[in-house]
């Protein structure tokens, strides 16, 4: 009989079965969180929705929500005491936790901000000032990935292009088969940036691209930047902490940012910005100027006016929650990766399609190709299909439209041309049924002869 099915009676240090046979020493209950406790922690999730989109907004357990509420009440109870005696101490404790999580040398290298978009603005703002003040020459280059996050692209336009910087986008293949494909294209972009006597002042590298989702060989690209004399390297790792290994000494970038509300169970919104001490951090300032201006970026960012700072104060509580799982954050990360790959392969097999990248280029998110018969032919189609899945099937999943290459839509290739990909996530609250629900919904649409052309335009 399996030990899990055996009824045990405990007697001192011995354990006996129903026939009074000695079977083992007293069983010690696992100290780790149980499946039922996980369900309780996320009981506030809509039970009718298969949430396989943790990547967009993250998730926050009840334990951390309760800690956040306590911080909010501390402020509301006595704002002056909170401001003078609690806020800075609390944020420093959060910074210490982050410093250890990311293997930074010193807590002064860690600043807490709202999100990765704010961190990008901080870094790019000082690049813009360097152009405006003549430290950089007009036409000097900044290099970024073509799949950089939309808000970061806009920030580069606002702070770098407008100041006279020459921006080069690295064209990346998708689907992608190897890290080498990315490294080759990145090297080409750096060579272009250095042509005509220009200097490459900044490289913006995603650790994990958002859409399509691919883990970038960030250490190799940072090393390449050093070899090619790039002034500053900024890694936008919005999805990284809690999803892939994050080690500042190993990566070696000047600046690195990651959200803690996506994969580290904090409430929206909180992120960290790492600034290597050897970098020119004195030129970094929060875009919101408060009376703390000039006291160093960590202090400036810890007070940008009266607002709710509770999400920045619960980082130690989020770590407590993470440590309830076997293996802590590394264990969660490993299990999420293994399960999302398994579910991605299940879906691609069911639909006769492919994954967008090899498993070792995936994190806790995977790109899964849709059947060509759905006829996803534009970004508008992708959004309409996403809405249809949400409203008609209770499935929340982002959809990426891939522009087909020349010749792919010819008659002989059309039936095999994958133009739509789902980005599925896995977090601890997900179950296999979430992905089976998604599989069955798409299979139903296919059986009904559905195409995206059938969906209303608004």
Automatic annotation (TrEMBL):
Keywords: Pyridoxal phosphate
Stretches assigned to the Aminotransferase class V domain: 86-370
Positions of the UniProt region annotated as Disordered: 1-23
Record's keyword annotation contains Lyase: no
Keyword presence, Transmembrane helix: no
Pfam families assigned: Aminotran_5
Residue stretches of biased makeup (Basic and acidic residues): 1-20
InterPro entries, sorted: Aminotrans_V_dom, PyrdxlP-dep_Trfase, PyrdxlP-dep_Trfase_major
Coiled-coil annotated residue ranges, if any: none
Full protein name: Aminotransferase class V domain-containing protein
Species for this entry: Nelumbo nucifera (Sacred lotus)
